[in-house]
């Protein structure tokens, strides 16, 4: 179930990005109906219904900022180098899978962002999500939020 705090953010956002593991198609349906713009990919825990509706990798451009979205990027060790090799031409790559918040920049200049998870914290101290501010300069601010 999506927490009310997250729904409030969805209602305010100009763009919502989901990096996979929807688990239930009803969540995809609800976010599709509620978000102004939704960009999403399927994850390893998603069934055939979700996989037919969403790609493995998605791209969106906001002004000059090129954003890629993928569920899985592999192990933390070597992630930056793998992402540089597999995602040339993106400025920001949003990924999921680990449920571990992540914010680094690759040697090639790609900003890697993992919001964690607002619904399944796994071994993390809290459920989390990210918000970002984008303007004509590009990505201006990224903030990690804990679900209260």
TrEMBL record:
Domain Calcineurin-like phosphoesterase: 3-136
The protein's required cofactors: a divalent metal cation
Domain of life: Bacteria
Pfam families referenced in this protein's UniProt entry, alphabetically: Metallophos_2 (PF12850)
Metal-binding among keywords: yes
UniProt EC number: 3.1.4.-
Keyword annotations of the record: Metal-binding
Family the UniProt entry places it in: Belongs to the metallophosphoesterase superfamily. YfcE family.
Protein name (Swiss-Prot/TrEMBL): Phosphoesterase
Species whose genome carries this gene: Allokutzneria multivorans
Lineage of source species: Bacteria, Bacillati, Actinomycetota, Actinomycetes, Pseudonocardiales
């Amino acid at each position: 179930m999506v927490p009310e705090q997250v729904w409030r953010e969805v209602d305010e956002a100009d763009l919502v990005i989901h990096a996979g593991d929807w688990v239930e198609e009803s969540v995809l349906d609800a976010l599709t109906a509620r978000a102004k713009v939704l960009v999403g990919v399927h994850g390893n825990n998603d069934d055939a219904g979700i996989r037919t509706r969403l790609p493995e990798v998605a791209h969106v451009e906001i002004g000059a900022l090129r954003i890629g979205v993928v569920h899985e990027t592999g192990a933390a060790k070597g992630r930056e180098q793998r992402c540089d090799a597999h995602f040339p031409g993106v400025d920001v790559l949003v990924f999921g899978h680990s449920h571990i918040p992540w914010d680094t920049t690759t040697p090639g200049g790609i900003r890697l962002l993992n919001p964690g998870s607002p619904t399944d914290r796994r071994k993390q101290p809290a459920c989390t999500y990210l918000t970002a501010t984008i303007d004509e300069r590009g990505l201006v601010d990224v903030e990690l939020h804990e679900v209260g």
